[in-house]
Amino acid sequence: MKIINQIFSLRKILNIARARGKTVGFVPTMGALHRGHAALLRRCRRENDLTVLSIFVNPLQFGPHEDFRRYPRDLKHDVLLAKKENVDIIFHPSAELLYPKRYLTYIDVREITERLCGKTRPGHFRGVATVVGKLLHIINPDVLYLGQKDAQQCAVLDQMIRDLNFATKVRIVPTVRESDGLALSSRNAYLNAQERQEASILYQALKLAKSHVAHGQRQAKNVEAVMRDLIQNNTRAKIDYVACVNADTLQPIATLKGRTLIALAVFFGKTRLIDNIIIRIN
Ligand code: AMP
Prior knowledge:
The chain is α/β, with parallel strands linked by helices and about 280 residues long. It has helices spanning about 5-20, 35-45, 75-85, 95-100, 115-120, 125-140, 150-165, 195-200, 200-215, 220-235, and strands at about 1-5, 25-30, 50-55, 90, 145, 170-175, 240-245, 260-270, 270-280.
């Protein structure tokens, strides 16, 4: 496994591999790797000749009052996990390399970035689209692997890839969870014992929504209300949003139909956690 922090050396290796007919899969992350990231790497490994993992805590996607400084960083641990998952290349650039002085170019995906998480985190998806756009230009992978846990991120990047004619295919990997249902996230490390215990309510709320739909409920506002009630009656958490939306456009829907994304964002103390499920309604 190679750890690379320069663009030219990464391009050189990838050009040689490609000239030999090898396919390249890419998993972008911010590090603090866990079993969720491992699932992406495993799928990438299975489906490509070469697996490239990027580790970069992207300053551009954090708001001024968010957790950029305290975001967990543990390169030693990440290198061990990457080795175990047979990663070929870790790309670990510095912020100065990706955003040198007088950096002026950004990727702005409209509409779908303004909903759900975009309301609470203005500029977040601009940061995500810009960094992933840059990484796709540098790596030019055949396939990009993303986690379903960040459903809006998947929708935004899918839109960007289509709009800007990137030749990369996107594969979405199901959310990996703890035994009590909590989606794995690097931010779970911020939770204290009580918050951690309460956080399992997120998946319970999603499962409750699913069962209401299975029993015939089709009104988004009713589904959202049962989720809100469950969270508010059982925890001290603060709801950012609970929403039923079209899974492709992320447009709110009054009556549930087709591929529906049920998504939520909830604060446990200062820690904001997100989760979602997609259901298909005939
Ligand atoms: P992050 O390092 O948190 O930016 O995440 C990097 C990639 O891993 C993104 O595509 C995430 O959606 C994905 N990911 C994070 N957590 C999980 C999880 N619990 N299950 C599956 N994928 C995940």
